[in-house]
Design goal:
Blueprint: H1 36-46, E1 59-68, E2 87-96, E3 111-119, E4 122-129, H2 142-149, H3 160-168, H4 174-181, E5 195-196, E6 201-204, E7 210-219, H5 228-237, H6 241-251, E8 257-266, E9 292-301, H7 306-311, E10 324-326, H8 330-347, H9 421-429, H10 432-446, H11 451-464, H12 466-476
Antiparallel strand pairs: 1-2, 1-9, 2-3, 3-4, 5-7, 6-7, 6-10, 7-8, 8-9
Protein name: Catalase
InterPro entries: Catalase, Catalase_3, Catalase_AS, Catalase_clade1/3, Catalase_core, Catalase_haem_BS, Catalase_immune_responsive, Catalase_sf
EC number: 1.11.1.6
Amino acid sequence: MAQDKKYLTTSTGTPVSDNQNSQTAGAQGPTLIQDVHLLEKLAHFNRERVPERVVHAKGGGAYGTFEVTNDVSKYTKADFLSEVGKKTDMFIRFSTVAGELGSADTVRDPRGFAVKFYTNEGNYDLVGNNTPIFFIRDAIKFPDFIHTQKRNPRTHLKDPDAVWDFWSLSPESLHQVTYLMGDRGIPATWRHMNGYGSHTFRWTNDEGESVWVKYHFKTDQGIKNLTNDVADKMAGENPDYHIEDLYNAIEKGDYPSWTLYVQIMPEEDAKTYRFNPFDVTKTWSHKDYPLIEVGRMTLNKNPENYFAEVEQAAFSPGNFVPGISASPDKMLQGRLFSYADAHRYRIGANHTALPVNRPKVEVNNYQRDGYLRFDGNNGGAPNYEPNSLNGPKEVPEAKPASYEVNGFAEAVGYDDEDHYQQAGDLFRLMSDEEKDRLIETVVDFMNPVRQEVKERQVQNFYKCDPEYGRRVAEGLGVAVPEGVK
């Protein structure tokens, strides 16, 4: 056969003679099992959808570049942040949290903001949201929380009662709930929202000195949000609006960008700061720890294939590089395991070798085999260590900095139980118009729930701010119980 024409083949390269008609026993006869091309097509089609993400199922992504614009080398030895002007390729995935793959982009929900930096020291993933805080602060509560955001096991319908029942019994959620029910709960587009690392992380410099750090990606396009009415209308008319907006903006050369800032906290401050700095339901005061510019992220290339590059993109907050490491944040500690484990289940043990996840640097380890091992599997090289066959060895200088721990091995919570002040502060920062919209959204969302749940949540709002609680109570027709402090 001539080689100047692209021939249709089976997955093993055999030319396909007929892709329009299956083999049958005569013109009117039943289909023959010997038609291996038909069987291959049907079998592959049955397996085209990998299990969707349990959370962050619906999303979109793009490639870009991160460029350092300010010298932060005194804080971290991370090479991709080592000098002004240094550029690093990156990939980002935006998403909603609770909905399925077919859900609408404009629902009221946090947005995932997951960034993969392809550094020359390996991949660094910063897996955050468009909010600086979260609903819970211990990973042991995460499965329960997400169950309330999904479908009722009996009705298979979304269940506001479960949502508010959980939140009302988990007052640490108040800060994030107030943020989510406010104006920023529905971004106009992914381009017009901020992104945050949310958790506290650790930076360490060449001298072994460490600081605690929080990440803030500030959109250069400005903040824009949708009202409930517009968002509902968009959900019906164009449920993929955010995916479409990002794709079209990049295609026409309108490249969105974000400026990355960090807050830096000296290690010793963590012992005496007025809030636990590792509690992801809290923020650090910008007056105490001002924003420091780091660099700019610009998105300039759309994926060529959504499934291969967006659906198979796998992020883990445990993917660090030298100079960046974890803090004792209880939510972060759980995510260090759960994200990579979810990817091993969803797309296989070798997911890090897929093109979108593969680092730019050479990978050397002793992990072998597993489903869909599609490279050379390290040939005949030794699959154990230590060995005397010149296999890859440890890099002691890449060891993360240590931090002091003490106490008893037991199941304990944070020692800070003030779940109300920061949520109240956020409410008091709002304009009258913002407060009106917040109250309206909360009341509409809570109307279907049980009376006892309404009363319990009203008490929580009242503890944040009396006006907050009173106005929600009035909207729901609920009396604020006596004795609420």
